[in-house]
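FIELD: query
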Amino acid sequence: MTRIHAYTDGGCRGNPGIGAWAFILIDTETGKALQRAGGERHTTNNRMEMMAAIETLRALREASPILIHSDSKYLIDCCSSWMAGWKRQGWKRKGGELKNVDLLKILDGLLVKHQVSWQWVKGHSGNAGNDHVDGLLNTVMDRIAKGEDSYRIDDRVIWQG
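FIELD: result
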């Protein structure tokens, strides 16, 4: 069983529009957790979903097995099914240019470092971890919409999900 679990989420108000990403990284043995969230004034939903996974993996201090729970089938499919083919094709797809290639390359490097398993969860369905990160990213988007300069969240917490 994987000791480290994460819940990730990304979203936008408008697509493109104000967007945010969030994660909570949980040590299931100790219940200690790290949550972070951030955002951008102009981005897309898919970029924020990918940023949530990138920031999750960057937060790990050492190479680790991790189970990431996400409500984004796009993110999961990118990382577990499509990326290898895109990489073989020079980061292109049959239909032409590949969107978000900058983030896909970052994810690829992080996925090589860590042993990542993916679990899809239905969004807005009462899953405590998914609901938690959804709340974090909405807080960040609210702060951005209000024009606040400091809108990042970075806290150590005890997980009680």
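FIELD: remark
The chain has a mean pLDDT of 93.
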